[in-house]
Structures are given as structure tokens and as C-alpha cells.
Amino acid sequence: MIGINKNILRAVLILSYIAITALVVFGISSLYSYLNTGADRSAILHTDIKKTDQYLPKITWAPLNNEGRPMNEQTLNAIENDYLDAWYVKHVAYKTNKTIGIDDYYTDSSRENIFNIIEQNKTKNITVEGTTLKHHPTLEFFSEDGQLVVITDNDVVEYKRIYENENIILETTEKSTYKVILLLEDGFWRIRHIIKQKTEVYNADINPVLNNITSIKGINYYPQATPWNMFGDKFDPAIITKDFKLIKESGLNSIRIFVPYEAFGKANINSKKLKKLTQLLNLAETQQLKVVVTLFDFYGDYSVLDWTLNQRHAETIVSTLKNHNALLAWDIKNEPNLDFESRGQKHVIAWLDNMIDLVKSVDKKHPVTIGWSNAKSAKFLKNKLDFITFHYYEDLDDLEAIYKGLKQDIPNKPIAITEFGMSSYKGLWNPFGNSEKNQAEYHKQAQNIFSNNEISFMSWTLYDFIEIPKEVVGRLPWRKRAQEHFGFITQNGETKPAFKYISKE
Amino acid sequence: MTLKPTYLLIITLVFSSFVSSVDESIINNNIQLLTSETEFEAGNTIALTFSNTNASKPNLYLSNSYGSTIINPHLENGILNYQLPKTFSNKTGVISWNLLGDDTPLSGKLNIYPKQEVTTMETYLGPPSIEAGGADYTMLVVIPKDIYDNPLKDGTAVSVKYQFSENKSKDVVYMKNSISYRNIYSETKTGRILISSECLSKNSKEYDVNVMPAIPTDFTITYNRNHEYADGNQITNFSTSIIKDKYGNIVSDGTYVDFFITNASNHILKTSGSTINGIAKAKMIHPDHEENWVVKAFIGGMAESDSLSLIYKQAILDFQIAFSDDNRTISVGPLKSFMNQMIPDGLEVKLHIYQNDKKVKTLFKSTFEGYTNFKLSSDIFTKGTYTFKIETAGIQKIYQNIKL
């Protein structure tokens, strides 16, 4: 007994010794590795330049033909950067009535002028939200020592929204020409003098397109596995081809797709995703389907200082696709009227208004619309849009009257319904929901109304989705479940009864 | 997708805008602009007046070169009076204004022109130094300004005055793009150009620009040494002629001159110096054996000298070697120079040790009072037969099969 006990004692002692040693070694090593983690050594030098785009108005330099010293590209870039930054800090200063940043971009004497106006606006509680959308500078003069330039900035398109006591009292877009003298001080090109030479109220000259839309029979499209994330890593041309074939064979002629703003890289478009978008249009062209491209999905800022970034985003996409045969139309934004409440109607409308101008200035051929979430909103900007679209999820019995009413209000523009549909979800979260049979009847009735009134339509949507991102309808399960079941084809890939009425009665 | 009840909001907005537009159209008919003037001199008090038949006091939006604001009127006897703030009335450029609270608002433009009276001459001069010869120039940029920091009108005459030695000049230039500028060229001599400007009887202060010599031209070099013997101890001095540019100006002090010395075996030695008053000097120690040097000086990329040939005679003609201590101590010397004097300390002596035709080691020593000793340790050089080669001042002596 004693012998066994001794052996046990020994074993326990040895094991505990090993355990304590292991613990100490582990402790020391984790402390050591903790002390060795941290910044990469290369970070000491701060060699990587983190530059975020904040302000990117369209700037077009006139060919260089200046007096004085010949200009080089690098200096011109430096001048352009600092000059635009000067505008940016000025916009921020007048928006906030604070002088942060002004010192860097205006010389001692010239910044006084800005400070005076800010002082004045502050006492009256006036703020100005402004941005410039276009610059057309001409380099007039560059001094021999490279320290002074004179530029004439022609036709600067400047949008301003003036608030008094936080109420908008004026919205104005001006086109002005400035003479600007800049000095190189402390490595900054600073504005020394700026003199407005000309100014007038600006109206973008946009023309209605010649080829407007006719008889759209379409569907909103996302692949079943990747709704709201179509251009990610799971982008699969084979699946899209299969779906497009199905859409074409079912008697439809067009699809509506969405380009998410942030996922596409905001102002600096992700070229891989843009390639995928082009590829998608190529596939649509092969199946003889036309595509309505909806821009700015998941965007909701609308703030004036964001406009130039939004415009560069749209400009890149629109100019890439504007000659594509499969392109049918541009939908500026999906259901922007839903943001009226949270962002302010005037803010949203002003943003849309300027975005229409931008898209139409880049692509003069394709019609432009906005996918309003209801027929009531469809009257906004109706004169600027080439055709009017709205979404309809209400009672079909009212549709005909609503459509006719709208047609009466806007008699000279085509009108289309670019979203409608019914969820066939009936279950735990909504025991009194609609069945697949109800859904089929709904689509039958809808097709009946469309054919009787010659209404262009695009239904929501091809598939029942398995996973809905929370950004779409939020986290609430009854909303998610409902959203999952709008398709003509079930989650298992079987066609629902409604599929029969996908394109005709 | 989801439909939100925004009807109420929209209807309210539409309705309220309709109501207010009715109000405003009434105002519109009642307000008329009275001020007919649109051109003002900076600094003047500017007021816009409107006749007004009712009691409304709409605000006025103003926008100038630097920013925008809103001002309130002063209503008296049916006249609306808007006085522009100094910030707006003092700065040149176009001011646009809008009477607010109207659907078809009254709007217009004012033009503020500078007060044609110079208060300061904003002057920029550069580069601050230029090259002689008449091709290089400096640029004077003058912005005459009124008391409110506004550049004067384009077309205003500015005279640019400058003086260089005997010459005084005055040129008239005219403002364009809100500036005036003039290029001022150098002459063939170095010196200082004094520059000033004048506009509407206001004179600037004095500015100056240095005219520096142009690039150097080719030059000659000379040498100077105590004796012609290769004693490895004395120093030879090299010196350039006075280096000048092509207009005869002495090059700037500090112009760097490289001297390249090519020896008999085509190896290159280099020494250098900077100019003072146009002359650069450099030094090089004598070789320790008979040599033939060719020396040429360069100012990188600009100028070069002629080449110079120097001959150094052998100073040490022969020397003695003594073995002692079982041949383990090798004594070299006396080493005598050209007058049989002991060679100055520090001459290098090399001992190459070979065993079986293979080099085992080379030992280096410097002379002291004409002698040097090598001691070969028995730990390193074990017993055996060695060959020694002793070399100094370009002379070699070989001792074969020495037993240690």
C-alpha cells in the first residue's frame, strides 16, 4: 500500500512539475509574442500614402499655352489637387461655419475674406451647402521661379443650398468664371486672389432621347444563390446564362438589375466588378434580352459634398456601358422616395435632378428613369425623365385606375411598372399569407391588366431566395420570410403555378 | 420594395408649396428694383433699393468671389433698402443677387471694380540668382493693389526699373490676368541687378538679383614639389590657373576641381580641391618608387585642364638584409635616400614568405630611423625550409632555402 502510494505521489509530483513548467513556458512565450506583435517595421517610414477621395468634380484643363515658364504635368497635378482642395475646404467651412482647413489653402490676406463671410453667416445662423460639379481651367501664367500661377477657371458649375435657421431658403446652380492667382507656400498651392468674372444661372441642356422604351415585358433579376450580391466572388456566367435562357423562353424580353454603390467601389470603380457587369450584359445580348441598369443601390447619403464622388461613379459605369447593345435604359435609383422622410425630400430630389443631368450628359442615347416605389411619387422630375416607372405592390383592383390617372397627368411619356409581385409565404410568421395559388391568380390578373392597357412591366422576381441580406428588408423574420417567396420558382428549383403567367395571361 | 406611408407628407408639402406660391406672386408684383447702377468702385457703400407697396421684407441672397450670404432689408416709406456688407462691397468681381421668397424672383448682378489707387505693390521676384551672359533671366511679377487688397484693372501701366553697373533701364508693362510681369536678362558681367517698380506714382521697395558667373572654361594646371625623388614622404602641390567663364568672370568660390593622376601602371589616383578666387589647389604624397605621372584636372561636366607629366626618380638604390637568431630575425636596412640620409620613418617594407613554392604569408612593416626588423615566431613558422622575398621602394630581394 505504502509503495503504491509513494508511486502515486511521485507521479503526481512529476506531472505537476511538468504542468507548472509548461504553464510558465507558455506564459513567457505568449508575453514574448505579445511584445513582438504590433506595427510592421516598414510602417516606421510612413511610406504608404493613404489618400481618400473626398472631392472629385469633373475638371477639364484647356490645352497648355501659358505665358512664362513652361508647365509640367507633375506641377499641374499638384496645382489641381490643391486648387480643388481649396474649394472643398471652403464648402466645408460654409457648411459648418468653421474655419478648419482654410489656412492651408488660402493665403493670409485672402482667407480674411472667407472668415468675414463666415462670421456674418454665423451671426445670422446661415449655412451654405455647396459643391462644384464642373471646372474648366485654363492656365494663363506660370512664373519663372515656379511659385505663382494664374488660372482662369471657366464655367464652374456650382450648386448651392442656403439654409437659414436650418431651413432651406434657396437652392441655386450657378455657372461662373473665376480668375485665380495661386502661390506656392509651404508646399501648398494657396489661393492668393480669386475674382469672379462672370456668373449666370445654370441650366443643364439635356434633351429627351430619340429611342424611348416600348413594350417592356421583363423581370427583376438576381441569381438564386446570390441575391443583392450578384457581382461578388460567386458570379457565375453559367448560372446566369441558364437563367437568361429560361427568362427568354418564358416569353420575356428584358431584365432589370442593380449596381450597388459601395460594393462597386464608390468613386473608384472596382474594375473587376465592372467587367462582370459588362459580361452580364454580353450574356443578355446573346439571349436577346435588354437590360435596365439601376444605379446607386444601397446608397442613401445624398449630401451635397458627396455628389462629386457619386457623379464619378455613375460617369464610369455609364460611359462603359453606353454603347452596349443590350442596354435598354438607366434607372437612376431604386425607390429614392423612401428616403424622403429620413433625408429630406428636397435633398433627395436635388441629388436625383443633378444625377439625371450627369447621366444624360454622358449617355445621350439611352432613356433615363427613376424607379419610384409608388405611383404618387412618379410626378417628381417627370419633365426631366425620359420615361416614368413606379413599383406596385398594392391591390391589383386599383391598378388600372392608378395607371390611367398617372397617364392623364403625364400624357407624353411612356410609363412602366418596373416592380410588382406577390409573396407566396404562408407559415409560422404569417399564417394568413398568400398561397402559391393566390400568387398565380395575382399574376394572371396582373397580366390581364397589362395586356388590356398595354402596360410595360417588370415583375419581382424570378426565384425564391434562400438568404436575404439584412440591408434589404431588415432583420425581422416575418419580413425576411415574405421577401424570400416572391419568386416564380421555389427554393428547390421547381416552378410555381404563377410561372404560367410570367409573361402573359 | 416596401411601401412607406409618405402620402401624407407629400400631400402636405405639395399643398403648402402651392399656398406659398400664391402669396409670393402677389409680392412679386409689388416689388420693383429702383437701383439702376450696376458698376461700383470697391469700398463704396452699396445699397440696393426696391419699391415695395406692402409690408413684406424679403431677404436678399448675395454671392461674390469668396462666398455667399443672406442680408435683411431696412423698410422705410415703402422703400426696401439692402445695404451690402463691407465684405461684399470691398472685393472686386461680380456679385449676383436674388430677392428671396418669390417663385419668379427678382435677380441681378453687380460689378465691383478696383479703386484705381495703389496702396501696395505685391511683388514676386525669382529666381534670386541668374547666370551671366544675357541668356538667363529673372522674372519680376508685380500685382499693384488698392487698399482693399484687390488687384488693379487689367491694362494698368506698371513701369519696371532696373540698374546694373552703368546701365539703368525702365520698361512699361501692362497688367493682364490681374498681374504684370517682366523678364530681366543678365549681362556679360557678374554683379547685382537692382530692381523696382512703379504704378500710378506708387513706388515699390528695392529688390536685387545676383548675377553669377557662367560655367567655367578650360584651364591649365601647374605643380610644385620640394624634390623629384620618390621618397614616399614629400608632398607635391597641384594648382590651377585662375578659372573663368567665357565672359572673363572668375568662377564662383567653391567650384570643385578633381585632379586625376595616371601612374606608369595605368592606375588612377585622385585628389581634389575647391576654388578660391578662381584657383583650386590639391596635394598628393610622393610615390615610394620610381614613377611617371600624368595629371589632368576636371570640373565635372563643364571644363578640363591640359595634362601634365611628372617624373619621380628612385630615392633608395639598394639596401642590406641580415639574418640572425636562427634566421628567425630578419633585419632590413639601412635604407638610405638620395643624399645617403636615412629614409624618413614610415617607408613600407614587405616580407613574402614561401614554402614549397607556395606563399605562406606576407608581413608588412614600416621603417624606423632607416631600419626595420621581422621576427618569425616558431609557433607560426615551424621548422623547415622557406624562401623569403623582401620588397621595398620598388626593389625586390630573394633568399631561397633558408632553414628555420
Describe this protein's structure.
The complex is a heterodimer of chains A (505) and B (404). With 505 residues, chain A is an alpha/beta fold. Helices cover 37% and strands 23% of the residues of chain A. Chain A folds into 2 domains: 58-201, Nuclear Transport Factor 2, Chain: A, CATH 3.10.450.240; 217-501, Glycosidases (TIM Barrel). Chain A contains 13 helices and 14 strands. Chain A has an 8-stranded parallel β-barrel with strand order 7-8-9-10-11-12-13-14, surrounded by 4 helices. In chain A, strands 1, 2, 3, 4, 5 and 6 form a 6-stranded mixed beta sheet that branches. In chain A, helix 5 runs parallel beside helix 6 and helix 7 packs parallel to helix 9. The radius of gyration of chain A is 30 Å and the shape is flat. Chain A starts with a helix and ends in a 21-residue tail after the last helix. The mean pLDDT of chain A is 93. Chain B starts with 6 loop residues before the first helix and ends with a strand. By secondary structure, chain B is mainly β. In chain B, a hairpin with a 2-residue loop joins strand 29 (348-355) and strand 30 (358-366). Chain B is 7% helix and 50% strand. Chains A and B meet through strand 2, helix 4, strand 3, strand 4 and strand 5 of A and helix 1, strand 5, strand 8, strand 10 and strand 12 of B.
Compose a concise summary of this entry:
The complex is a heterodimer of chains A (505) and B (404). Chain A is an alpha/beta fold.
Features:
heterodimer; A: 505 residues; Nuclear Transport Factor 2, Chain: A; TIM Barrel; 13 helices; B: 404 residues; mainly beta; Immunoglobulin-like; 8-stranded mixed sheet; 6-stranded mixed sheet; 2 helices; 7% helix; elongated
